[in-house]
Amino acid sequence: MTMAEWACRRMGLGPTTHAESAVPQGAAPGWAKTSSLPDLFGTHPATSELWLVEAKGSRRLGLRPRIKGAKQLDVGALVPVTHQKVLCGSSLERRLFMMIDVEGVPKTGNSGDDPMGSDDPTGSDVSTDSTDEEALEQDDEALLELARSRMLTYLALTSLPRDGLRITAVGRPEEGSAARGDLIRLLESDRATTELRRHVPSDAGDEAVRQQNGLDMLAGRLPGTDLMLGMSRRLYGACRALAYAERRVVARVREERPKYLEGLPREVQPADGTFARLPERQMSDRVYEERIAEVQEYVREVREEQRDDQLRSVRDGFTMGDRGSWMHLIDLAPRLALPREEGFLEAATADTYLAVEEEALDLDDEAE
Question: What gap in Å lies between CA 17 and CA 27, rounded to an integer?
């Protein structure tokens, strides 16, 4: 799904949401009760059209899983509104590559006979970057969806040891880069980042990066992997606010529907600080699945009722993060790191960061 979202971002799609965790706008009530759904959904900022995305992957991807994926995208009456279907297939042999099938091509609002609306092979409108930035600044709904789509990255960062967190300097996108739809920048060839890092001392902190009008991304390496993930202050603030809002949703569900939680296995922490597991549930798998479905349905109802609160909270967190510092957000001033010098290949958007160890990649020049 990570590869699928990356590909759809290159086509101008905004943040995506896992289909089992929410209901797309315009979808029928039966969406939440359907077992075989596409993996992701999102809204294209240029057309305001719903996109449904299915991701298939294997070591050697064949036709059969792609046919299965196409059937999952055929949602029929579940989504009566106009929508776009995108099937993404990732295969590992012999090198990592993707296959993308799109049912029709959405127009981006430009005139002309070219259905893509521009010379950009990604189909992105020339104002994609500015539209995204404008949406984050003015559209609370767009900001909430962005924060929700990045919660796993936020939770990963909060779970890392504090001494493993670093700040890395990323240059702001150069003016005119949106003309090619460059939402994701490879930092090895990014002039703005190279120039920024030349002017920021190696022993500097996030304040020095901001003084040079750069982006100070909080980043950390995921244990047991060759990956480093990160995000901007403003997105971290928005995600932190959303996490607190989600806790309020869960607290209300626990208070109003305690019976939903009875019999579900969970860990408790006694007064002595040790962990003990409650006895395993005494219910059949069918009853257990029904109970889980009831919990999820009620959580969705409560979340929808508290949506205005979430919109306000995320906007406040976004604003505070943008105006504050990492000390305000995490009570810590991480040191500056240069992943490129540590053998990492880097990529970033205006609010997210990803790095992978170069040695972990197969970059040989052998011809196919």
Answer: 14
